[in-house]
């Protein structure tokens, strides 16, 4: 998914200086961003005061939207470097095309995982004939320096491992949870898990104390570590936890995000994650040039998204070190 902000700001990411060393309860409120077609997303990362959770560096939540008789999601071809995209649905379908020739329809609770590595381009759209409701999240994972120039790749995993407890079903999206390991390729110690809670359920989810965590609320009425949460919000939880108390007063859906704090300092601008101003400027020039580096997305009915202008000052990786 693209960041369609026509004036994207520089996002310094990484470093341990803004990582809570102990459990916290920090509520992150979203800002609404138009995405394309009839879709408006709630952006939760990066946000003021909180830029990353482990290697997770971008979180958009959208829906549930009634798109019957509407085009739904329409995101034209656009580029990425230095990151992975994770498409996660609770309702609807998203058709993925990319410059590798991949063509896949992502459905609820199936993993669409794209590794941009050195360069890739892709598009995302609701199929012409699509379900009435669109509801999901788009997530980015920053690649560590050792892997940020890896060959681009796309994975579609319809079947994912599940962890169950009374009233709770946890689907492991990426990384591992309580011994269950996702088939998706991960490059850092990380976890992403979809949590389905039944009405009245109370559960305690096992966590790793060395990870930092956050929980994105998708639907229902829940309490996470005693904090009531509305759909579309995210609660940052810090580190030092061995378990997480959960309670639902209606059938509810959550997404758990976590991982070891990301130590490297990064620059995220538009759809690029790099280490220097030169990384970003070169990627923009290549996208606006002949497109050879990013390839061509075939089959999408529309023109690629042009890159915004770079800001007048140099981009700097200013993530604080602890």
UniProtKB/TrEMBL annotation:
The record, for SUPFAM superfamilies, names: RmlC-like cupins
Give the organism the record lists: Actinomadura parmotrematis
Task: Cite the residue spans of the region called Disordered.
Answer: 1-21, 302-322
Protein family per UniProt: Belongs to the pirin family.
Which CDD domains is this protein grouped with? cupin_pirin_C (cd02247)
* This protein's name: Pirin family protein
Q: What is the lineage of its organism?
A: Bacteria, Bacillati, Actinomycetota, Actinomycetes, Streptosporangiales
Residues forming the Pirin N-terminal domain are: 43-141
Q: Domain Pirin C-terminal, which positions?
A: 193-288
């Amino acid at each position: 998914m693209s960041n369609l902000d026509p004036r994207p700001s520089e996002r310094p990411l990484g470093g341990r200086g803004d990582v809570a060393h102990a459990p916290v309860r920090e509520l992150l409120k979203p800002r609404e961003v138009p995405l394309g077609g009839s879709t408006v997303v709630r952006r939760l990362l990066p946000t003021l005061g909180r830029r990353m959770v482990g290697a997770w560096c971008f979180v958009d939540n959208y829906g549930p939207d009634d798109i019957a008789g509407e085009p739904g999601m329409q995101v034209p071809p656009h580029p990425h470097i230095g990151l992975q995209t994770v498409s996660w649905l609770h309702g609807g379908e998203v058709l993925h095309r990319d410059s590798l020739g991949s063509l896949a329809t992502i459905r609820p609770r199936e993993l669409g995982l794209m590794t941009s590595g050195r360069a890739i381009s892709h598009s995302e759209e609701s199929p012409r004939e699509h379900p009435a409701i669109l509801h999901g999240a788009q997530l980015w994972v920053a690649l560590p320096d050792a892997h940020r120039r890896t060959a681009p790749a796309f994975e579609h995993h319809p079947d994912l491992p599940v962890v169950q407890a009374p009233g709770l079903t946890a689907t492991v999206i990426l990384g591992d949870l309580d011994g269950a390991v996702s088939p998706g390729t991960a490059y850092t110690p990380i976890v992403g898990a979809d949590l389905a809670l039944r009405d009245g359920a109370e559960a305690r989810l096992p966590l790793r104390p060395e990870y930092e965590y956050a929980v994105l609320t998708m639907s229902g009425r829940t309490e996470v570590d005693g904090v009531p949460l509305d759909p579309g919000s995210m609660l940052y939880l810090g580190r030092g936890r061995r378990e997480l108390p959960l309670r639902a007063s209606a059938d509810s859906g959550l997404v758990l995000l976590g991982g070891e704090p990301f130590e490297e300092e990064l620059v995220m601008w538009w759809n690029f994650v790099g280490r220097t101003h030169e990384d970003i400027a070169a990627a923009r020039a290549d996208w606006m040039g002949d497109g050879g580096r990013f390839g061509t997305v075939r089959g999408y009915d529309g023109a690629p998204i042009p890159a915004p202008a770079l800001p007048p000052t140099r981009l700097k990786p200013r993530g604080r070190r602890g």
